[in-house]
Specification:
Helix content: 10-25%
Largest sheet: 6 strands, antiparallel
Number of strands: 6
Structural class: alpha+beta
Shape: globular
């Protein structure tokens, strides 16, 4: 999978690669918000994870574009509260994404599509596409480069086929919204 078609995800990937000073994972303590590319910041989510367990994750930061698309995402939101905002299938997708990230120990890409009813009777469905890039971050280095993934930086861009209604709210999925998640791939 190439990121060249999405400048926000490409900038995020290049930034993450620039943080890596060795073959290990970048440490979240290296992260300087002022150094994050400006086109990435609005699309950014930073979540703390513990031992790769989604149930122990906690939201630390959500950019303006993320909060525009998704309902309440307050800082310090934990996975239990997040589960109440979404449906079980979406929650499982997020767990699977984290598991893939922990297994691969490198960036993971996926695309989800949401099909919503048209804005008025007779309008075609509104298709919302979410492209996500999950970037693993260590939180402290272990001996011999054995860093544990302690945080994930998620960068997501969303596009809609019909923006007439203004910002769309797609989480939690409203009744009747069809959600499809594509496969996880590793960017080249």
């Amino acid at each position: 999978m190439t990121l060249d078609a999405n400048p926000v995800l490409k900038s995020a990937h290049d930034f993450w690669c620039g943080l890596r000073q060795t073959i290990g994972l970048p440490d979240i303590r290296q992260l300087d918000a002022a150094a994050i590319p400006r086109n990435v910041l609005p699309h950014l989510i930073v979540a703390e994870i513990t031992q790769g367990d989604f149930n122990l994750s906690r939201l630390r930061l959500a950019g303006a574009e993320i909060t525009r698309w998704f309902r309440e995402l307050p800082e310090d939101l934990d996975a239990v509260a997040y589960a109440r905002l979404t449906d079980p299938a979406y929650l499982q997708h997020m767990r699977d994404l984290l598991a893939e990230l922990v297994q691969q120990r490198r960036p993971v890409y996926c695309r989800s599509t949401y099909t919503l009813d048209g804005l008025t009777t007779g309008d075609p469905p509104n298709i919302v596409t979410c492209d996500r890039l999950a970037l693993p971050m260590a939180h402290g280095s272990g001996a011999h480069g054995g860093e544990a993934i302690g945080c994930v930086i998620m960068v997501a861009t969303l596009t809609a086929s019909d923006f007439r209604a203004g910002p769309l709210r797609i989480l939690p999925p409203e009744p009747g919204i069809e959600v499809r998640h594509g496969p996880f791939t590793l960017p080249s």
